[in-house]
TrEMBL record:
It is found in: Cell membrane. It comes from Natronobacterium lacisalsi AJ5. Keywords: Cell membrane, Membrane, Transmembrane, Transmembrane helix, Transport. One of its GO terms (cellular component) is plasma membrane. The keyword Membrane applies. This is Lactate permease. GO terms for molecular function: lactate transmembrane transporter activity; solute:proton symporter activity. Its main location: membrane.
Length: 592
């Protein structure tokens, strides 16, 4: 049992985040340093955490942030290289020129293109690219933002080549002693647990998310059509359902039988190929084209500073490369990631292990250095810091294993393939680095805050339960056996606060694990619901909405977008909650 006072103190950092980000609409770059400071004060004053442990937990969080930023940097360099080369124009054209019908464009652009971008880059990229494209195709600015935000949600759990799972689930699970001990007793590693969570999350998404193309279409035709009716959406329901299944099946298969990096990429690439081919063959196209009312009838809040255009304003008459060449760097990325994850001993070697190959020992480790602040193991592409500042905390960076390295390799290959010169390559790198400045500040402090909360009971003489465990036990006590129904909602709440599935998983993943353990229910199924909830919370995350509106020149409509997006959010959380209850208590009660 935990006391109300403990719960109140443990919740202080999250309350600070909520008040500053949601209540006062502060940017994360201002709010998160204060939230981290509040966690430090509470951990020191209430949990008795010594300064060395506070510093070590903060560094542990910063190292995790560096891994995330490395992935995002590689993703953005590849994206900007493709844009500079004109290859992205070919991809845009393949999605946007199939039909003039706005409903079909929502399925192809707002769903398939957005989910592909989420799988490749994540961190706000889909809305930043897709919303302006829809605006250029003639969509009202507000409709473009709503469609882009709804369309990519199913892919967020595996965004930026699996970052919310690789970093968001595995890293914090591995860093909490209580959880790690539980896993070891079951003979499960944190990496194996994260892979299983990813598979169950994909199962929830498959059952619920196949309707997202229809919901995206229905939201647009109902709220932005000539009259408020979903009849135009029902006319393309077969296309929408076909698109959802065409995406969902390979997506689910990749999560279960390949790796957590690939579901969004494989689902979008395979699904788009199938659906575009079907439409070009003349099947599932609507009998009559649907479009928006005449622009003269649009309310002022539909429009921003940038006027809607037509197809020619966003799609060049002649793309600079072919569609097949445009896909090549992403196909190379898939091959590289499969090879570095599934081929042994390469996978182990890249993770810093010594392996036997060609009759001899191979290792990328260069040296181990012991200092007064800890022991450093330096590798060719890795760094491990053990006993940080004299504590038992540790963390490492495997730059050669995480997807960032292979995204950069794919970007270099794209530069060669499309004959990018040095100045253009430098532009791609500098633009990617510039885009990282704001996320860097926010991520460093939010992850430092999360790790202080996670490690607040790790020091000698500490209370039995950390801040996160206190919150988990209290939440489990409040909801009792109904807890699985709200697990996804908790994840959505976390993402709505911080605007990131990865950070929601880092902060609330251990909480969900401990809550499930206290209730003696499946940890994998419960944390899987967290991973799904963390994705759908992005629908209403305030700074995600602000950023998306900025791309179409529309300011001051954040509240309107959030109110509209609450509709798909409620749908998703309710039905994922339903399936979580069914899985936990009926279908798979024996899953770990």
């Amino acid at each position: 049992m935990v006391s109300g006072t403990e719960v109140l103190f443990a919740a202080v950092p999250l309350i600070v985040v909520g008040v500053l980000l949601v209540g006062l609409l502060w940017p994360a770059t201002r709010a998160m340093p204060i939230a981290w400071l509040s966690a430090v004060v509470v951990a020191a004053a209430v949990w008795g955490m010594p300064p060395s442990w506070l510093a070590a937990a903060t560094v542990e969080g910063i190292i995790t942030a560096i891994q995330i930023l490395w992935i995002v940097f590689g993703a953005l360099v590849l994206l900007y290289t493709m844009m500079i080369a004109g290859a992205f124009d070919a991809l845009n054209r393949s999605f946007a020129t199939v039909s003039e019908d706005r409903r079909v464009q929502i399925v192809l652009v707002a769903f398939f293109l957005a989910t592909f971008l989420e799988g490749v880059a994540g961190f706000g990229t889909p809305a930043a690219v897709v919303a302006p494209l829809l605006l250029g195709l003639g969509f009202p600015a507000l409709a473009a933002v709503v469609a882009a935000l709804i369309g990519h949600i199913i892919a967020v759990t595996y965004g930026a080549v699996g970052t919310p799972i690789i970093v968001g689930i595995r890293e914090p699970i591995d860093s909490v002693f209580l959880i790690r001990t539980t896993l070891e007793a079951e003979g499960v590693t944190p990496a194996e647990f994260a892979v299983n969570v990813a598979a169950w999350a994909a199962t929830y998404h498959l059952l619920v998310g196949v309707l997202m193309p229809f919901i995206a279409v229905a939201m647009v035709v109902y709220f932005f059509g000539e009259r408020r009716s979903i009849r135009p959406a029902l006319e393309v329901a077969p296309l929408c359902l076909f698109a959802g299944v065409a995406f969902g099946l390979p997506y689910w298969f990749a999560a279960w039988y390949v790796t957590p990096e690939f579901p969004s990429l494989i689902g979008s690439m395979v699904g788009a190929t199938v659906v575009v081919g079907t439409l070009r063959a003349g099947y599932l196209l609507p009998d009559e084209e649907w479009t928006f009312p005449d622009q003269s009838e649009w309310p002022d809040h539909w429009l921003g500073e940038i006027q809607p255009g037509d197809r020619g304003s966003v799609l060049p008459s002649e793309p600079r490369t072919t569609l097949y060449r445009a896909w090549t760097p992403y196909l190379l990325l898939l091959v590289l990631l499969v090879a570095t994850r599934l081929i042994e001993p390469l996978s182990a070697l890249l993770q810093g292990e010594t392996v036997m190959a060609f009759g001899r020992e191979l290792s990328l480790t260069l040296a181990t250095i012991s200092t007064g602040i800890g022991r450093f193991t330096v590798g060719l592409l890795s760094l491990q810091w053990v006993d940080i500042f004299g504590t038992t905390l540790e963390n490492d960076i495997d730059l050669g294993y995480v997807p960032g390295m292979w995204l950069l390799v794919s970007a270099v290959a794209a530069g060669v393939l499309f004959d990018i010169d040095r100045s253009e390559a430098a532009t791609a790198v500098l633009e990617a680095a510039r885009k990282l400045v704001t996320p860097l500040i926010a991520l460093v402090f939010v992850l430092a805050m999360a790790h202080v909360m996670l490690q607040s009971a790790a020091h000698p003489g500490a209370p039995d339960q950390s801040m996160i465990v206190v919150l988990a036990v209290a939440t489990a006590n409040v909801f009792g056996p109904a807890y699985p129904f709200v697990a996804a909602l908790i994840g959505a709440f976390g993402a709505a606060l911080v605007g990131s599935n990865t950070v929601s998983n880092i902060t609330f993943g251990p909480l969900q694990f401990v809550a499930a353990e206290n209730l003696a229910i499946s940890r994998e199924l419960t944390v899987g619901a967290q991973a799904v909830g963390g994705a759908i919370g992005n629908l209403v995350a305030i700074h995600n909405v602000v950023a998306a509106l900025a791309t179409v020149g529309l300011g001051g409509e954040e509240g309107r977008v959030i109110r509209l997006n609450l509709i798909p959010l409620v749908y998703y959380t309710v039905f994922v909650g339903f399936w979580t209850v069914v899985f936990v208590y009926v279908l798979f009660p024996d899953v770990f």
